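Proteins fold reproducibly. Take a sample protein:
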Amino acid sequence: MYKPLAVFIGLRYLRAKRQNHFISFISLISMLGIAVGITTLITVISVMNGFEKELKARILGAISHATVQSVGPPMTDWAGVIGHVETEPEVIAAAPFIEEGVWLHANGSTGAFLRGVQPDYESRVSDLAGSMLAGSLQDLQSGSYGIVIGIGLASKLRAGLGDKITVIAPQLKASPFGANPLMRRFTLVGIFELGEYETDSGLALVHIADAARLLRLPEGAVGGIRLKLEDMDLAWQTARKISDSLEGRYRVRDWTQERGNLFQAVRTEKTVMWVILSLIIAVAAFNIISMLVMVVTDKQSDIAILKTMGTPTGTIMRVFIVQGSLIGVIGTLLGVIGGILLAQNIGTVVPVLERLFGFSLFPADIYYITELPSDLRQNDVVRFALMSLVMSLISTLYPAWRASRTHPAEALRYE
């Protein structure tokens, strides 16, 4: 009896062997329901966080964090613009580029984006140079008409190193035989694998001078400048700052305008998953209500005796609040431990399940990535645990109030 009376009795009710085993079963189910809900919620949200982080890293490793483009004719003073934007503290590096949608033909045919780059500049603003499976970006030399493509694009074209790839641009040129599309044969000198399906299957790189000649651009002209920023999450603010510094002479776009809808969809999906999986915890909390109502009914005589001995109404309520809250605390603790362990080892667990049942949980052509990532965040774990504890506490209020309303005379009438 060294504990407060409400805590002592609440613990005794929780530990005691009851004649009604169904109540004990409901208590166990409630505890396990909360544990499963928290484990699932932590694991799924950690996977969604990892998916968003990995997707952002891989996509932004190929596309630019921001671009500066001319609003009129092709940009010719790009060297001066690069020198200007690189004075901004948020800009890590800048590189000129030319980009155009083209049709590629080798042993197969497919559409792709052709990007003209300067290898020395490109390696500063993207991860492509470090993702080469064969060859190198430095193999792109002006006038040699070499081309570097992604592993998925190479598979579609059924092309290997040294093969010839015909690049067909959408522009037309006049000839004695009529208007013909611009085209030129390139030699495959490199293959990369960034790990992002759309880039690996739809991007081809050539030297910027070769791209300019193919597209009939003026000498020294480029399509724009790609920027790598210190903080990609602040790309919009940085783009506006750069636009203001350029006095509106150029159009500045950031990655959120190009791929922002994709990441917004991921965040929306994460929110929806959080709401849906929270219902598991809510159901477990409702089980606590039903269990405590049955306990209150079962302990009517005990409550009546306590009240006749002068036990305050608040103490009677706290007895059942303690009992229900302990179920929530234990279930939450088990769920947090299980969620942390599963989230940290999900990359090992999922491949085993895929091999065991013969399915692919995240097909690369749909989810852009080939491995299941996980990013366990402390604030998520704390938020989910607090949500579970609050739900458990709220679920005890009605049964506790009902217990406090017990009338001793009616409860002891047939005792």
Summary: The mean pLDDT is 80.
